[in-house]
Every structure is written in C-alpha cells, then in structure tokens.
Design a protein that fits this description.
Order of helices and strands: HHHHHHHH
Number of domains: 2
Structural class: mainly alpha
Strand content: under 5%
Number of strands: 0
CATH architecture of the largest domain: Orthogonal Bundle
Distance between the termini: 36 Å
CATH topology of the largest domain: Tetracycline Repressor, domain 2
Largest sheet: none
Length: 198
Amino acid sequence: MTTTAKPGPGRTQDADLTDRILRAAEQSLRANGFSGLRMEQVAAEVGCGKTAIYRRWATREELVAAVIMLFADPAEEPDTGSLVEDLVIHQGQSMINQSYQDNQGEDRPLWGVLVEPKVREILYAGVLSERRDRGRTIIARGVSRGDVPPETDADALLDMIAGFAFYRTNVRNERLTPEMFRQVASTVVSAPPLRITT
C-alpha cells in the first residue's frame, strides 16, 4: 500500500512542495505528536492550501505514515556471521533514524505514532512487515548456525528487542546506542524464547 496519492488527471505534483509538506508535518509530529498535528497548520507553515495536502494524502494517517517512511532505512539485510551483531544492525535500521542522532531535546520520538491503529496498519502493509520478514530471516540463519535452537520463537525474540527500544524511546525518552541493543540482543540470544506447543 502506498502512502502517497497519485496526481489527478492533467495535474502534476510539485516535488518540492511535497517535500516541504512532509518536513512541516514531521516538525509538527516531533513538537506536538499525532493528536496535535493539524492539516491547516501544516498548510499555513508551507504556504499552500489544505487541498494540496489532501491531493497527496487522503487522510492525516496517510500523511503521518509518509513522514515515517522518510526515515525508514532501506539498507541491505545484515549478514555478519553473528546473530547478535545482525540483530543490533537490524534494530538500528528499524529505529527510523531517530535514536542514533544527537539528543533532540523535547522533541517527541516519531516511533510514538505507531500506537495509532490506522497509521500502524498503513506502515505494516509496507515497511513494518518487510522489516519483520528480514528479522525472521536473520534468526533462521542463526538457527542454521546453531546460535539458537530450532524451536526459537523468532517473533517473540524480535519483539523483545523492539519492545525494549519502543519503551526506552517513548516512555523513558532515552537516546539509544548500538551497545544497548548489543546487551539486550546478547541476553535474548543466550536464552531465547521458544515456541509454545500445545
């Protein structure tokens, strides 16, 4: 599912205006969160009409998803030969380019919008499901090397690392580092969650 609307017949989109709308929406999200994002304020900030925004994104949720996509790292799937290091790199790619940057003061982390059901649905149809599939592949390689047992619950393992990242950035407002992920990944890999069979 794409988050960018296609131009109507006979109408071309101005790439510069699209970029300025996305950047203004990003700043609003960082300052005010999802509930504080107002299309009319974004339009005023950019100097366009609300219709210019709605031609590109039919809903506020689609606009927010498009902002998040700006920061989704399309980097190659890591394959270092170490399950722990691959998980550290994978989680770093998933952090939407925010936690490895210098402290942004009182800015809200962009991850917070994932609690919005419609935004999450749009993102899961694209980048989030792709990221999860990559994570499962990383763990499958770890299983084949004997790093974790075959009955490892890949989704639970990935959730433990992602949950740590989400809580630390959104609840505790901490800046995360690769070393933090390395400690968590090492702990989880040493005693991975196993699939529950009934």
